[in-house]
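USER: Fancy drafting a protein?

ASSISTANT:
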Amino acid sequence: MDAILKKYLPERAVSASLELIKEYGVNLKIVNERVTRHGDYRRLPNGLHQITINATLNRYRFLITLIHEIAHLVAFEKYGRSIKPHGVEWKKTFQYLMLPFIRPEIFPSKILPVLARHFKNPRASSDTDANLSLALKQFDEKIDRTFVFELPLGSVFRTYNGKLFKKGSKRIKRFECEELSTGKIYLFQPNAEVELITD
């Protein structure tokens, strides 16, 4: 397991992560990318704890996702299964488990302040925190991606599920975009990854 974790995690985070995996009896599965989520946790019928994480995540996002999912396990064990998945109990647990990792030996200095802000009140997904998501994306493998905030007003783009949208104006934090086939308006996070069709 140690050798596998070295491939996916920042080097200085491997031993502490391995301790958590052993302590909580986690069966870790690294899977091909799922567009809708970075990872998930579930308790198997036999009582074992399974966490799956996308293999395509960069080291820093992989670590955050791993601790996010372990926090689900720990919060359910400590507070019971009736708690909200991303409620107060999970947030406290996630903050507590993540704290030893928010260090310059593990995360690059340009991510640390953004990470510290995020963990004052962690969200259900690091992607809904646009600042953290963009900070982490700097460390992704370079592939041709465009973000909604980069597109000119009125440009047409395609989402991962193949739907076409026209970019509209910004409403507080998100952009109003019209789905071309239905005329419905959807709100997009500025850091949503899309394929530009025309500008």
About this structure: The longest strand covers residues 164-171. Helices lie at 2-8, 14-23, 59-79, 88-98, 112-118, 130-137. The first helix runs from residue 2 to 8. The mean pLDDT is 91.
